[in-house]
Amino acid sequence: MPIAVEARGDFLRLSQRSIAPEKVLGERFPYLFDIDRNALHEGKNIGELVFTSGDICRKVRLTLIAGAQERRSAAGQNRANEPREGRHMLRYRSAYALFLLSGKREQLGEAEAALREAERDKELDAQRAALLSAELLAARGNTTRAQQYLALLDGSFSGSVSHSAERQKLVLADSLRSLLSGDEQRKVRASERVERELMQNGDAELLPLLLLLDPTYPEVRAAKWDKLLKLCYRKGSRSVYLYALLAKGLREHKEPLTVLGPDTFAAIRFLLREQAMTKPLARRVAALATATDSWDQAAMRVLRAVYEKLPQQELLGSLCARGAAPRRA
């Protein structure tokens, strides 16, 4: 009977999930696994490798102690995850992100126009262009045209793929087919698969797809949704979709803002850039900023930008006390 392998711990990455029994008979078997440094937190990181075959279960407990140096060493990897694309693709992403933030359907039209320009200028391959077009049409509710785009890809994907970009295409294609099938059970299974992909890889590019499959997910499963967003950020995803959805939660007061962390500052930067900052949110940011003794330079730049956009007397006093007075109008 095959031996199933399970990892318990966000920082553990398995080399294989099943081991043939003949490989371990009569000799020591070296099982390899990786450590995801982006998933480490300072202090003790505790996890387990669980090996199961029939009624037999063996656990190997792992403890990894990480300090600030290990967290800093992952910063270069985080930057490497940022998409580097042409100007039309960046315009497409920006428009789609604003649709996720605001729900305004005219942003979908802007995204479609940008995608056509990107395909014309060879900024993406035909497969990906068809998939993204089908996704936008599904978001618009035009299922017939979306199915036509997917029909062009029949037979393009087969089996499992290991390359992350190709795997993302496969997940997107399969999930869109489930969405457009009208079969609720297929949609549920597809949303569960996308959720697993997000939990395992932290690929925030799949977040819009999860919302298409289950629009009620952020409300019905609010705690899990918040965990997914923060996990994607912690694992190094720097997708504009992640920033937009983090910002949406802040604007809609899904949870009272009680702490200013790196993911919060990322969402605030997005709101400032898109001229979407609100006065209630600026007041909450000001209250939290004045209650904290020190901020790093990046945080101070964000706080100064908040003041310049929506002046708050308390925030001005805090900035002046730290020698970071905003520019005068």
Structure explained in plain terms:
There is one protein chain. This protein is α+β, with helices and mostly antiparallel strands and 329 residues long. Helix content is 56%, strand content 11%. It contains 16 helices and 6 strands. A 4-stranded antiparallel beta sheet has the order 3-1-5-6. Helix 6 packs across helix 7. The longest helix has 18 residues, at 164-181. The radius of gyration is 23 Å and the shape is globular. The termini are far apart.
How is this structure best summarized?
The chain is an alpha+beta fold and 329 residues long.
Could you give the order of the helices and strands? EEEEEEHHHHHHHHHHHHHHHH
Strand order of the largest sheet: 3-1-5-6
- The rounded Rg comes to 23 Å
What overall geometry do the principal axes of the alpha carbons give?
A: globular
Overall average pLDDT: 80
| Low-confidence sequence ranges | 70-83, 158-162
Write the topology of this structure.
Elements: E1 3-8, E2 12-14, E3 18-19, E4 33-35, E5 43-53, E6 56-66, H1 68-73, H2 75-80, H3 87-102, H4 106-120, H5 126-140, H6 143-151, H7 164-181, H8 184-201, H9 207-213, H10 217-220, H11 222-234, H12 240-251, H13 262-273, H14 279-290, H15 297-309, H16 313-321
Helix pairs in contact: 3-4, 3-12, 4-5, 5-6, 5-7, 6-7, 7-8, 8-9, 12-13, 13-15, 14-16
What distinguishing features does this structure have?
single chain; alpha+beta; 329 residues; 11% strand; 16 helices; 4-stranded antiparallel beta sheet
